[in-house]
TrEMBL record:
Membership in a protein family: Belongs to the short-chain dehydrogenases/reductases (SDR) family.
One of the record's GO molecular function terms: oxidoreductase activity, acting on the CH-OH group of donors, NAD or NADP as acceptor
CDD domains found in the cross-reference section: SDR_c
Protein name stated in the entry: SDR family NAD(P)-dependent oxidoreductase
Gene3D superfamilies xref list: NAD(P)-binding Rossmann-like Domain
The organism of origin for this protein: Qipengyuania soli
PANTHER family assigned to the protein according to its UniProt record, in alphabetical order: SHORT-CHAIN DEHYDROGENASES/REDUCTASES FAMILY MEMBER
Pfam families reported for this sequence: adh_short
Classification via InterPro entries: NAD(P)-bd_dom_sf, Sc_DH/Rdtase_CS, SDR_fam
Amino acid sequence: MQHLEGKVAFVTGAGSGIGLGIAQALAAAGVKVMLCDIEQAALDRAVEGLAATNADVAGVRADVSLKEELQKAADETIARFGKVHILVNNAGVGGGAEYGKWTDASWNWTIGVNLMSVVWGIEVFGPLIESHGEGGQIVSTASIAGLIAATGPSYNVTKYGVVALSEGLRVDLASRGIGVSVLCPGFIRTQIMDSRRNVPTRFGELEQQNEGDGAAEFVQLAREAIENGIDPRYVGELVREGIEGDWPYIFTDLQFEPLINERFANITAGFDRIRDRVPQR
Ligand SMILES: NC(=O)c1ccc[n+]([C@@H]2O[C@H](COP(=O)([O-])OP(=O)(O)OC[C@H]3O[C@@H](n4cnc5c(N)ncnc54)[C@H](O)[C@@H]3O)[C@@H](O)[C@H]2O)c1
């Protein structure tokens, strides 16, 4: 999508962090933005801040892990802006527990917010983007953890899922005039480490992150890396550029490139191990 001015975007998790950075960058490029978030107060602040820059924006509260709430948010977007060109599936939570500590609730929460919301976002907004024939773009926020299994099990699984969905749909949706990008951030300065502030009550009391074991040490290191991480507004500008250029992968930095290459090398070594046993055809 080369000309963003006047287009309409729907951005989830836009009340803070990366989603807000994306909403700000798009609004600065003249895009009309519907911000969506589960946190009403953060959403109101974000919309107010952007409206003060003369941007054409609005907000809708939704728990994106519930399909009917996403559908309602889409209806409100069409009622307010008439059409939608850009879907940014960004809401996500760092949650779940390590092996031996996980529960069904911790898996269901993470899968619901990080993965099913992306599936449903595409299901609900895809036809809306297609319907006007002006083309569009879908950007979904995965993570470097969508390419190397570097964090907790459920987070890794959901982020690999977002990468897989995006890679597959990029091929399927091209002929329908919709570009598909996946955002794989490194460490970004946001509130991701305090994701449990947003656990919906239907999941009951999710267990607190384990203290005094390996997980606590990992959490502390991640917290420090994120506190010193990249500015989310910069990530927003990268996403804006990624939409304009229809980038398949939007990375934020090079920190984890060697680890990703190591994974590819391990995969290649797996093929090498059986190479001389493969029957010649
Ligand atoms: N911060 C990082 O270092 C980092 C790295 C890789 C990927 N990510 C991904 O970036 C995305 C944004 O996270 P962030 O780092 O900006 O964290 P954040 O906590 O600052 O922002 C996430 C936003 O999503 C909203 N949200 C949470 N649950 C929701 C739900 N059920 N429905 C609607 N909105 C909901 C929150 O209220 C919040 O505004 C996530 O998908 C996360 O996994 C972050």
